[in-house]
Design goal:
- The structure is a single chain.
- With about 425 residues, this protein is α+β, with helices and mostly antiparallel strands.
- Helix content is about 30%, strand content about 30%.
- It has 13 helices and 23 strands.
- It has helices at about 1-10, 30-50, 65-70, 75-80, 140-145, 150-155, 200-215, 265-275, 300-310, 345-360, 375-385, 395-400, 415-430; strands at about 15, 30, 55-60, 80-85, 90-95, 115, 120-125, 135, 160-170, 185-195, 225-230, 240-250, 255-265, 280, 290, 295-300, 315-320, 320-325, 335-340, 365-370, 390, 400-405, 410-415.
- The strands form seven sheets. It has a seven-stranded mixed β-sheet with strand order 3-9-10-16-13-12-11. The chain has a five-stranded mixed β-sheet with strand order 20-19-21-22-23, sandwiched between helices. It has a three-stranded antiparallel β-sheet with strand order 5-4-6, with no helix packed on it.
- Strand 17 and strand 18 (about 320-325) form a beta hairpin.
- Bound molecules: glycyl-adenosine-5'-phosphate (GAP).
- Glycyl-adenosine-5'-phosphate (GAP) binds near residues 173, 298 and 303.
Length: about 425
């Protein structure tokens, strides 16, 4: 884990939040490579679950919503962590995350458990009183339920259908550490899939398969995932049945990666009652009127990133020298190709290499590097997980070809500049 954290900082994937002021626990910023990795994951998710299906609608709801949403959804009363505090070192812990009656840090005595709502509060307008409270959403899901009728009215979908959304969610987490596994603000990619009650088990199983298929297709080994069913006392206030997809993270083994919940008709029914607006569905063929039931696959972006980073990290021994290489699947790699002039002080080489760089750039995210020697540049691009490095050398000036080096095999091939784009397209999209 330390190796991944340090590589992420060194290569510009993930930086600690507010670092120059000593940081802010459980916050992180994505650097240039982290943004690209996150973007590639999100685009792959959107393609599989929205673009490639004809039963799915996209949505981008607000982070701030009327606070009545969170009363109706049950979050102000039911979304709670139960905490204890150490009387000696004053650290706080979630009761469900400690095994003993003593402080896990210093062995001190713990207080009686207290309830705590981990939603961030803010105020709308200049007056800070109970009537101006607004919450930063702790899940993206509620914007979907609140817009359910809007989508019905605009598109008249037939059941089963889903609404998908990705965006920031916020939780006042008190458990610290484990890098981006648990953040105060994080991104969720969520689907509410509306079905008839009798079909819930069928669609639950279907979504289990879909979730697994997408995640494994990012280049993850099957042995590193497993499903775990929530026990009765562990279920969220809105769920009748939940299973977590767990991933074997490099700290502490199998932990929750994603959740799949059967939210029955809890949310639509409650929002109907509390808002006074009818959120039921009418089947136009049978005239049946009912509240659809819901299967909710919920994905966390940061946990996906951490799993992908762990999965990609590799150390190889190359004739006694250690090579660190991030073996991302090409579609996820932040930079697809790096372009180097063999030497940085030869204007002819620079000019030619710039031309090659400009050929690639409109098609793939490419990076220019003319610092240090070629060995150092390969070293940096291996750590960034760049699948191809393209070098312009003196032969290029005569033969109009370049050396293309493959990240995984480290093999080098001469490719004509005229064929370079097709070559990369085939390798990267294949
Ligand atoms: N709408 C359902 C829901 O929010 P959840 O299990 O509380 O369910 C879903 O959260 C997913 O969001 C988790 O499986 C995880 O991937 C991600 N997640 C939750 N809290 C997180 C946090 N503090 N930091 C990073 N990711 C988090």
């Amino acid at each position: 884990m330390e190796k991944i954290v340090s590589l992420c900082k060194r290569r510009g994937f993930i930086y600690p939040g507010s670092e120059i002021y000593g940081g802010l626990a459980n916050t992180f910023d994505f650097g240039p490579l982290g943004v690209e990795l996150a973007h590639n994951i999100k685009m792959s998710w959107w393609k599989k679950f929205v673009q490639d299906r004809d039963d799915m609608y996209g949505l981008d709801g607000g982070i701030l919503m009327n606070s009545r949403v969170w009363e109706a959804s049950g979050h102000t009363k039911g979304f709670i962590d139960v905490l204890v505090e150490c009387k000696k070192c004053h650290k706080r812990f979630r009761v469900d995350q400690i095994n003993s009656k003593k402080c896990p840090e210093c062995g001190g005595e713990l207080t009686e458990p207290k309830k705590f709502v981990p939603m961030f509060k803010t105020f709308i307008g200049p007056v800070e009183d109970s009537s101006s409270i607004a919450y930063l959403r702790p899940e993206t899901a509620q914007a979907i339920f609140v817009n359910f009728k809007n989508i019905l009215d605009s598109f008249h979908p037939e059941i089963p259908f889903g609404i998908a959304q990705m965006g920031k969610a916020f939780r006042n987490e008190i458990t610290l550490g484990n890098f981006i596994f648990r953040k105060l603000e994080f991104e969720q990619m969520e689907i509410e899939y509306f079905i008839r009650e009798k079909d819930w088990e069928k669609y639950f199983e279907e979504w289990k398969k879909e979730m697994e298929e997408w995640f494994l297709d990012l280049g993850v080994k099957k042995k590193n995932i497993r499903w775990r069913e929530h026990k009765k006392g562990e279920l969220a206030h809105y769920s009748k049945h939940t299973e977590d997809m767990e991933y074997s993270f490099p700290f502490g083994g199998f932990r929750e990666l994603y959740g799949l919940a059967y939210r029955y008709d809890y949310d639509l029914k409650n929002h109907s009652e509390k808002s006074g607006k009818d959120l039921s569905y009418i089947d136009l063929k049978t005239n049946e009127k009912f509240f659809p039931h819901v299967i909710e696959p919920s994905f966390g972006l940061e946990r996906t990133m951490l799993a992908i980073l762990s999965e990609a990290y590799d150390e190889e021994d190359i004739k006694g020298t250690k090579r660190v290489v991030m073996k991302f699947k090409p579609s996820l790699a932040p930079i697809k190709a790096a372009v180097f002039p063999l030497l940085a002080n030869k204007p002819d080489l620079i000019k030619k290499a710039r031309k090659v760089y400009e050929i690639i750039r409109p098609h793939f995210l490419a990076m220019w590097d003319d610092r240090g020697n070629i060995g150092k540049r390969y070293y940096a691009q291996d750590e960034a997980g760049t699948p191809y490095c393209v070098t312009v050398d003196f032969d290029t000036l005569e033969k109009d070809d370049v050396t293309v080096r493959d990240r995984d095999s480290m093999k080098q091939e001469r490719i004509k500049i005229d064929n370079l784009l097709d070559y990369l397209k085939e390798k990267l999209n294949g």
